[in-house]
UniProtKB/TrEMBL annotation:
Keyword ATP-binding: yes
CDD domains from the UniProt entry: ABC_Carb_Monos_I, ABC_Carb_Monos_II
Protein name: ABC transporter ATP-binding protein
A molecular function (GO) term: ATP binding
Top-level taxon in the UniProt lineage: Bacteria
PANTHER family recorded: CARBOHYDRATE TRANSPORT ATP-BINDING PROTEIN MG119-RELATED, GUANOSINE IMPORT ATP-BINDING PROTEIN NUPO
Sections of the chain in a coiled coil: none
Keyword match Signal: no
ABC transporter domain mapped to chain residues: 22-256, 273-510
Keywords: ATP-binding, Nucleotide-binding
Amino acid sequence: MEKAINATDGASGTTKANVPIMETRGLVKRFGSFIANDGLNLTIRKGEIHAILGENGAGKSTLMNMLSGLLAPDEGEIYYNGSQVSFTSPRSAMEIGIGMVHQHFMLVPALTVAENVVLGIKQRSPWFRLSAACAEIERLSASFGLDVDPRKRVADLSVGQQQRVEIMKTLYRGADFIIMDEPTAVLTPPEVQDLFRVLRALREQGKTIVFISHKLQEVKAICDRVTVLRLGKHIASMPMEGTSPSELARLMVGRDIQPPAVRQPPGDGAKLLETANLSAWHGGIQVIRDVTFDLREGEILGIAGVDGNGQRELCEALMGLGTKHAGSITVRGRSIEQPSPIAMIASGVGYIPEDRHREGLMLPMSIGENLIAKQYRQSPFSRYRMLSRRAIRDAAMRAVQAFDIRTPAVDHPAGKLSGGNQQKVVLARELMLRPDILLAMQPTRGMDVGAAEYVHRRLLEERERGCGILLISTELEEILALSDRVAVMYKGRMLDIIDRRHADAEQIGLRMAGL
């Protein structure tokens, strides 16, 4: 274990005063026998953007939940503006100026921005007027460059605009210390730049931002200082200036991260999956337009593109998930007239969905129950229509070990795992089936660099086995690192399919913009 590094020099940006706003001393949080935070000592300064890094399960979310009043520590002390504090709820934390913007937004789509912002606030006067709230939201919006219209319905806003509403909620309640959990996970590159502009404006006006992310290049671009956690312990705190992403990755996982090994181009394998003039409609709107491609044995075909250009709908059409379609789908030379999840699974197709919460997992159920969700009718998990709990538990134990799923117990509910460990459960379930074809949508979304490296290695192992993988990712580096051929989706169309050896980031970036 490395010795903790305590920075004594000032961070960049507006942190010259080096005045602490938040400190923790010996903070401990246990869940049964599992220690999520182990004696954490942390200092965050006023007016800085402070990154918290760590692997999935390193204790970041537990720490933030204690700082925002969602959890109470078992041991240790929290100091805010020099005074020891003890929170009984998120409301008590907000009352002294601490707010949190969660990765999964806490908004009511049918309500307006203003109605969402004031929702849950105990009004001091019975004569509350929404018009006054709108005026205050407009003032804050202008002050911090948020560009939020208080009268618009949240359902009509883009994802980036909804995130600004979440930030507005904290500002309206008077927060000076704002925790942001994976704030760029669902944003497009332009929306990320808009968010960074807002965060810099908040910092210039004295707000303190805690920035939790797995994207080291973004952390490097926006943050003043960084703290690294590993296995619940404090590893290092340092200024961001002069620190490289590779050094941060090493501190997070305790070793150097190896890029995917150079590998031979795939041979002329048999065609596993073919589409011809595939089109699809959703809600009466055409979302896929005449997509034609093939996927061969032992090949990774990467599909790059900004979120919302038809990637999700392509996978849903291939899996028969309710999207009306035209054109043909062929698996191993056999035409699939009416694709359905059952038919595609029976044809040897695995599917890692984009949203692990809504589509990938049954959150209240255990790890084992999620792992057998596609095999529960089969031996050894079922005999005489009765589930074998022992077989399910044995499968869960093997998966936890093989896929490094970090959990207090193998019968732990999937919904209580960290996001990266939830993703590992989804991956384990699909690979247990040894598919011939794998549709992998955003397979490393929300994962730390160590977990992402592991997923990349498993995907390459499947490729070597002969599996054909359709890899869909908004992370261009991931596409270029893993793919044998690269296609770009733009407004529902699949643009040129390029051999990876002849593709570069600039070329693909232009196609992602439709050029």
